[in-house]
């Protein structure tokens, strides 16, 4: 929490950043003029909730008590503190009696005020008023009923007493807008009754809209807004309307608060974050921050919950979501609720149904959704614009973006944005969920591994990477370039993980296999050139290590950066050659599908001009069988349902040894093969042979 409290709602006259003191001085001066021009009057300090009325009222009270223009007797009365209308009525007259000067001269005056109260109050309610004897009160009531003393007579005597006051009495009433309709009418009745007494003045502080709402609920207005306003105008003769915050004041207040939070949390906005927040502030947020309380309420919501998310989410996006949570709560609830899948681009059905060129219709649909969630129609467009700045799926609609959702989601990931699935839940859990790993933990792994091998850290990292491969791989990938020594230790871990996720080839949240391959490429770029060879040899000790480094080399070649390729290429060719050498002289029936895959990777890494002669020799003069070689060259398709056989690599066979070689060596097998081979057969060696024979026979055609 910051030293400045955004949660307090007490008057703060010491803080005059909104220039309320000069306004308060004007009010004090105006009340002095009212005193000169009338024997009694009622004024109103009017402003919406949170506009700073209480702070301004405190400043006005200071000015009244100073007595520079008029020597006032100030009576502060809060009607909201009384439990019922009778107590309120009693408190009113107690306050008036207590405001009279001390001394025997005024004892009779206090008695007359008490008698006036007795005359207009139910007899059973006078017990407890200071200085009024219940039996005497009852006696007075008896005389009044007998016609001996009238209420008007009592009032006349009270007026005579008050006319002799040297110091006028100023009643200051706050919190009128917290009363019930019945209590409010009682206050106004008392104000009108006592307000007609000489030297009695009132300053009422209230939110006009709320008071009009309350009066409309009474018989005075009977639901008529105009009648309610007319009634108020009869009560209040002088209006002092709170000056609204000027745009510069609002901006200064918000800037000051956000700057304080950012300094304390060590947040630095980049240029894009500044642009995003500024645009949203001008277009939307400023329309809600119309009072000091609204600004403080907004900042308090940020301040109370960001601490646990520091370094784990994007500060600006947290501020924007906090705005929705604070001022548009129904819209906010929909984001992690019914809108979640679509906002994160996980509503595959909708994405498939949506056709290009429908962005205008999609935006219109979203505006309707926002309206149905309770957003004012005048603000739905601005709220949609805010959401589109957070969620790539909506940004595509807003900007007619055709570059693909993935690239926008990558940007959201880099900025720790709510629009990326890795960070979404953090914004709504106000912390890192139990099934997630904090960014600071990932960075801690890299820092400690960068200092040297650490088995416990490596084991912790590997366990997390295996359990949540896609997400943890992305987190490491985003930071690994800063830690070249750690990269050297993480690549063997990646090779181990790649061996274990081989059958987890597909997931709605991304492929673990591809995530590890991408992590390995980025990590390899961070490895110092003089250590690349040793790291690759260590990776080769794992089952899929050589294949993983082959994929890394291919990705690096696509960059065209020789500086990245040169340190890696020789070592990759070496380990792949070594893998193939291990079975080049063996019967292919004893070679697994996995081992044979190294042939394709070696050929791609070293070049077919190097590899093909060796493969040709193994076929023509070596132990390799033509049918087994062809069978191992049937490709495998990977889908959501698993792996299945696809097609024969005809071009590969042609380039290595020529198709005639297979026609001649498999002549009898091809002639005798009559089986119909369906698509997508399970991956077995026998099925591989069937697919190979079927495709070769079809390619060869009928024999003469």
TrEMBL record:
Q: In this protein, which residues make up the domain named KAP NTPase? A: 21-304
Pfam families per the UniProt record, alphabetical: KAP_NTPase
Q: Known InterPro entries for this protein? A: KAP_P-loop, P-loop_NTPase
Q: What is this protein called?
A: KAP NTPase domain-containing protein
Q: Source taxonomy lineage?
A: Bacteria, Bacillati, Actinomycetota, Actinomycetes, Kitasatosporales
């Amino acid at each position: 929490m910051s030293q400045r409290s955004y949660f307090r709602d007490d008057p703060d006259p010491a803080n005059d950043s909104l220039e309320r003191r000069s306004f308060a001085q004007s009010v004090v001066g105006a009340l002095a003029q009212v005193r000169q021009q009338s024997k009694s009057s009622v004024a109103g300090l009017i402003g919406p909730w949170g506009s700073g009325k209480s702070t301004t009222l405190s400043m006005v009270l200071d000015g009244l008590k100073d007595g520079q223009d008029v020597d006032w007797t100030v009576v502060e009365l809060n009607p909201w503190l009384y439990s019922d209308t009778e107590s309120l009525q009693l408190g009113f007259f107690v306050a008036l009696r207590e405001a009279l000067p001390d001394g025997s001269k005024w004892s009779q005056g206090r008695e007359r005020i008490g008698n006036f109260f007795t005359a207009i109050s139910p007899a059973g309610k006078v017990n407890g008023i200071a200085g009024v004897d219940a039996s005497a009160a009852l006696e007075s009531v008896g005389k009044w009923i007998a016609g001996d003393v009238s209420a008007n007579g009592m009032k006349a005597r009270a007026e005579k007493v008050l006319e002799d006051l040297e110091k006028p009495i100023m009643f200051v009433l706050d919190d009128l807008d917290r009363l019930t309709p019945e209590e409010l009418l009682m206050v106004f009745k008392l104000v009108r009754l006592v307000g007609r007494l000489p030297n009695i003045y009132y300053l009422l502080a209230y939110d006009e809209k709320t008071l009009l709402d309350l009066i409309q609920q009474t018989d005075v207005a009977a639901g008529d807004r105009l009648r309610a306003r007319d009634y108020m105008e009869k009560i209040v003769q002088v209006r002092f309307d709170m000056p609204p915050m000027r745009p510069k004041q609002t901006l200064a207040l918000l800037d000051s608060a956000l700057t304080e939070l950012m300094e304390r949390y060590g947040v630095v906005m980049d240029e894009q974050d500044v642009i995003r927040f500024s645009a949203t502030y001008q277009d939307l947020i400023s329309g809600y921050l119309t009072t000091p309380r609204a600004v403080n309420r907004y900042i308090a919501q940020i301040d109370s919950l960001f601490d646990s998310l520091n370094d784990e989410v994007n500060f600006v996006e947290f501020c924007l979501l906090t705005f929705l949570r604070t001022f548009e709560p129904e819209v906010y609830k929909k984001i992690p609720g019914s809108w979640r899948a679509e906002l994160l681009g996980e509503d595959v059905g909708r994405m498939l149904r949506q056709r290009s060129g429908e962005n205008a219709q999609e935006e219109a649909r979203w505006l309707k959704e926002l309206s149905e969630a309770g957003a004012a129609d005048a603000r739905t467009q601005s709220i949609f614009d805010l959401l589109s700045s957070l969620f790539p799926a909506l940004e595509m609609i807003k900007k007619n973006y055709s570059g693909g959702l993935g690239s926008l989601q990558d940007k959201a990931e880099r900025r720790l944005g709510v629009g990326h699935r890795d960070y979404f839940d953090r914004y709504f859990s106000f912390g890192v969920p139990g099934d997630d790993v904090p960014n600071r933990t990932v960075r801690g792994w890299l820092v400690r591994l960068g200092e040297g091998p650490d088995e416990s850290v490596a084991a912790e990292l590997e366990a997390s990477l295996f359990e949540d491969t896609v997400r943890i791989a992305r987190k490491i990938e985003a930071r690994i370039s800063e830690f070249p020594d750690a990269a050297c230790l993480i690549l063997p871990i990646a090779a181990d993980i790649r061996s274990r996720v081989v059958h987890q080839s597909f997931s709605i949240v991304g492929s673990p296999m591809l995530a590890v391959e991408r992590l390995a490429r980025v990590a390899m770029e961070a490895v110092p050139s003089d250590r690349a060879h040793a790291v690759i040899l260590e990776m080769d000790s794992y089952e899929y290590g050589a294949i993983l480094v082959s994929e890394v080399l291919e990705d690096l070649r696509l960059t065209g950066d020789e500086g990245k390729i040169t340190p890696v290429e020789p070592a990759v060719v070496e380990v792949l050659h070594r893998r193939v050498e291990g079975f080049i002289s063996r019967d292919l029936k004893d070679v697994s599908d996995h081992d044979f895959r190294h042939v394709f990777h070696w050929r791609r890494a070293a070049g077919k001009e190097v590899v093909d002669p060796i493969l040709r020799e193994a076929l023509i003069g070596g132990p390799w069988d033509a049918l087994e070689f062809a069978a191992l060259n049937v490709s495998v398709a990977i889908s959501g349902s698993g792996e299945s056989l696809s097609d024969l690599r005809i071009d590969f066979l042609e380039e290595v040894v020529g198709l005639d070689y297979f026609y001649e060596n498999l002549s009898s097998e091809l002639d005798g093969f009559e089986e119909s081979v369906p698509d997508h057969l399970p991956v077995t060696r026998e099925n591989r042979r069937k697919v190979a024979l079927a495709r070769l026979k079809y390619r060869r055609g009928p024999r003469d």
